Amino acid sequence: MSGKSFHVQPGGALGGDIRVPGDKSISHRAIMFAALADGTTRISGFLESADCLATLNAFGAMGLSHVLDNGARVIKGLGMQGLRAPAAPLDLGNSGTSMRLLSGIMAGQTFDSVLTGDASLSRRPMKRVIEPLRQMGAQIEGRDGDRAPLAITGGVVLNAIDYTPPVASAQIKSCVLLAGLYADGTTRVHEPGISRDHTERMLSAFGVTVERDGDTVSVSGGQSLQATDVAVPADLSSAAFFMVGASIAPGSDITLRDVGVNATRRGVIDVLLAMGADITLINERDQAGEPVADIRVRSAELRGVEIGADEVELAIDECPALFVAAACAQGTTRVTGAGELRVKECDRIAVMAEGLARLGVDCHELEDGIVIVGQPDTPSFSGGSIASHEDHRIAMSFAMAALRASGPVIIDDCDYVDTSFPGFVELAAQAGLDIQAGAAE
Questions:
Q1: Which one from 51, 91, 294, 317 is the annotated catalytic residue?
Q2: What pLDDT, on a 0 to 100 scale, did the predictor assign at position 233?
Q3: Is 112 tagged catalytic?
């Protein structure tokens, strides 16, 4: 690692008309499904981030070829049975999405494989995908039981299961459904709550029959995927940092173009609106099966709210940014039902509480959440140095906090921002944030 840090000067406002990079979740799936499809898929708007390139490179190691054409990735599919045994372990870098979804695909292959990643990914638990795959008959072993690298034995017969995940998770659901395409019978996932439905939408776009009955999603084994063009919308999770920044910084007025506003993940918009944010969706439309809109955000006086498990489910990745918004609001914000944040790239509850406290915010952790006492008067934060713990969303959230700080905010270990948002510093500076990337101090 190069030890990159962000140096952000206090104050300012956000403005202009920008487009954040493509949706990470959709980009991952577009590569995976294009690789398994019959025919050629053209993917425009693909997120050229470290995480998504890890997925692309993994399939390249299994025989996938592609070309760049005017910025689009053109993928010649290999078909459901066309992947080749890789010569080495598949290195997925920092990408939990890649590892969890690929586990389901690799469980159905005829050859052995090993999924590995960097130190951060290797600390993240994989038990939630290992257990259902084993129930389907897969042979999969992890280090210390449930940590990467994961060794998956090929050539086993998978059987369909009815499965209820312990938590609502698009990654667990997607892993099981993808393995289900290789299984005998119909695989059903009974969701305990709402999770992102990008997998179901995109499988349908690739010609797979996906059925939904209430909270149950099912696929039958033996289906094939047919190539189709995919236009990836801008990532709502990346847009969220600018939505929060514009909401808290007086005088801000920014428009974010072509943002995916899928109902299963737009919780950040709904929570900010409940806090009193000035957010308008413009030009709502459908793009490759996904709802898309332009989002205009103007500064507003925010108020503290109760954020429970239902809201957290639809805004799990955006919670760090929402915690920054809460610190600038009138009153107290209480977040519960967010225990999943403790097993992300880092313990995001503990790390956000630590960082907020370093910037002078009154907050304290709960077992499954956090209580933040808002400081609505400007500045809401002192300056200071923040440890991001190599978490991209922590780093970008605290960069936006500088808009309401009394002094410079310096954030360390920011290299991982490129895993989800390449070009963040340049785009944030274009929008009005006084930010520079430099070597760690």
A1: 317
A2: 96
A3: no
